[in-house]
Structure formats: structure tokens, C-alpha cells
Amino acid sequence: QLQLVESGGGLVQPGGSLRLSCAASGFRLDYYAIGWFRQAPGKEREGIVCIPSGDGSTYYADSVKGRFTISRDSAKNTVYLQMNSLKPEDSAVYFCAVDVFPRCTVVAGGISESEYDYWGQGTQVTVSA
Predict the structure, then answer these.
(1) Residue 128 CB neighbour total at 10 angstroms
(2) Digit-coded pLDDT (tens) for 44-74
(3) What's the pLDDT band for 1 if we cut at 50, 70, 90?
(4) CA 70 → CA 13, 41, 59, 94, 96, distances in Å?
């Protein structure tokens, strides 16, 4: 059974850091592009980061560029999202997702959830004083 599980969310003060994990079972993440999306209450889901499999460009949305870093740990079959300098507007449910295509598909300057085939259940991030 293919499964993605996010973890690492929580409550953090503005300026703080969190590291989210996206662990897979039933398949290898190495072969696929992995995206992180987030959705705040009343807002559309936003694609913020994508890491390709192998060669290719990693995508960061302008809203997180320079603050968030995505990485892979092949041994643990896990993708991480390191989030630094967090702001209240980063508060959202964060989802990881798998695109069976190995490259990050960037259209009109962003990544689209319609490109992604498997999703985790999400983890809540709240940035508040």
C-alpha cells in the first residue's frame, strides 16, 4: 500500500524554525518529484516547493524562497522541509505530494496540485506569538 505521512508540524513563534518530514512506505521517493503544498483556512492550496528526482531544478515559491529548504534522505525514504524565519502568514496545513514524473513541472511560475498523484494527510503549522 502506497502511503505518505507528514510530521513535524506544531506551534512556533515568529522567527522560529520547524522541520517537516514526509515519509513514504510502499514505494521509493527517489524516483519521483516531491512537492510541498500548504493550505490556510479560507485559502486555496499553494504549491511552495518541489524537488526533482536526480537532475533538474528545485522550485521554491517566492513566498518561501531563502527561508525554506527541501532535501531528501534516501536511506530513510524521507523528504524534509526545513522552514526558517517563520512568519504568521506561513501558518497552514502542509502537505507533501508525489508526482510520478521525475521533474518538477512549473507552469506560469508555479507548481500545480493537479500534477501530483499521491498525497499525505497533512501536518498543521501555526506561527504565533
Answers:
(1) 10
(2) 999 999 999 988 899 999 999 999 999 999 9
(3) confident
(4) 21, 24, 9, 13, 11
Q: How far is CA 39 from CA 43, 78, 115, 127, in A?
A: 6, 21, 17, 14
Angle (CA) 87-88-91 rounded to 5° is 105
Separation of CA 122 from chain center: 10
Is 129 buried (19+), middle (13-18) or exposed (0-12) by CB count in 10 A?
exposed
* 96 close to 79: Cβ distance less than 8 angstroms: yes
Which residue, chain included where needed, has cell 507552469?
107
Q: If you search the block for the grid coordinates 506569538, which residue do you land on?
A: 129
Question: Which residues, at least 6 apart from 91, have a Cβ–Cβ distance to it below 8 Å?
Answer: 40, 125, 126, 127, 128
